[in-house]
Amino acid sequence: MAANIFIVDIFGIKRYNYGGQIKYIFKKGKSFTMLKIFGGRVICDKQILDTCVYIDNGKIYAITDENLPYDRLIDAEGNYVSAGFIDTHVHGGGGADFMDGGVEPMRIAAKTHLMHGTTSICPTTLASSYATLKQALLDFKVFQKESGKGGVPNIVGMH
Question: What is the DSSP letter of 102?
Answer without folding.
Answer: S
